[in-house]
Amino acid sequence: MRFRLPGRRDDVPAGGGAPAAPGAAAGSSAAAGPRTAAGAGTAAPPDSGGGPAPELTGEGGAGDPRRGDHDATVAPAPAWERGERVRSATRTLAIASAQLLLICAAIVVIGWVLGKLWVILLPVILGLLFATVLWPATRFLRRHHWPPALAAAVVLLLFLGLIGGLIAVIAPQVADQVTELADQAADGIVQVQQWLQGPPFNVDADQLDQVVAQATDSVQSNASEIAGYAATGASAVGNGLINLVLALVLAFFFIKDGPRWVPWLAAQTGPRAAPHVAALSQKTWSTLSEFIKQQALVGFVDAFFIGIGLWILDVPLVIPLAVLTFFGAFIPIIGAFVAGAFAVLIALVDEGFTVALIVFGIVLLVQQIEGNVLQPIIQGRGFNLHAAVVILAVTAGGSLAGIIGAFLGVPVAALIAVVYRYVRDVLDGRHPEVAGDGTHTQVRGDDEGAVLTRAPGTPG
Region entry Disordered: which residue ranges (predicted)? Predict the structure, then answer.
């Protein structure tokens, strides 16, 4: 449609009447006659020259002989249901927004509660991780008719003896070579200064001395703050030792009484929920155990081959660096990077740039073989998280809880993935509580106690 503005004098021909469209037929004036007559008797505006006033109408279009001021719109005319649909969509959006806000508020509250209980949760989590490592040996002894308490105590003492033996082997080497490495590091700093003074940098010696003096002054001015950081670090080490001892005590009870946990937990629920509780508990435990075993194998392979390379190149602190590489594997991607960086740094300080470059090549080769060959093979039976998810989990854990958070980030992400997949399968009606042999867990017992048994078919 085309719409005309009122008072347009060029729309009215000199003789009055309806305006003539360009190229219109001779009878167009007659066709417009009735419409003009509708306005007969209307006083003409003062500037119209005495002729009849132009018709004020919203009509028009391709067949209208009059010349309009606006072209017709290409949008369709609104339907009567449009308003109702807009209100329905707005109502749905408002409900979804309120639900999302409630979920976010619940997550914030849960995070706040977990933060307040972190002092209790951390030893429990570490105890569970220790239990996943110690349980296979404990289960072996229990199957050979060892009492649960004796089997758990023997395995835990052997584990502590192994850790103590590693520390006894590593500590003397570090103590013997730390002074030599410090002197070599000072020589390395002097070499770097000489390198910067030569081409292509040609940095003046006075400028380097000024930078060193500024750094020294900065350290001296912040001595009290640095001392506060040192005290905080010492306190953190003390709390870490307390958490470690408590985690080992909890691990002892977990491997001694652990088989009773799932029956007790399932017995607290109803008959419909018990199979899901038992199945989900088993899946999360299997995932956590699989993660520990996989990362231990990866760490051993990395530590072995990198240690062999360092030993051949006569780099000092071979055993400490190999142990660091082994434990660094439990923080995927980032841990291996940090351990490799330490090896390259010590090689640079002790042996020079060429050996450091060779060590860098060895570390890079071993990590590429691990990431592209070993990881896909050993993770075939376990969980599989994308590398981006692993990096985000480690980063988030490290920002929330430091080194412990970086260590726990990937296991927590894996457990969240297990729970999500289980719930998804339940919603899709796939019965994840049913094992591969077609049986499911159910609780049997009386007032004296309850046990878990296997029943065929799906639970009712």
Answer: 1-81
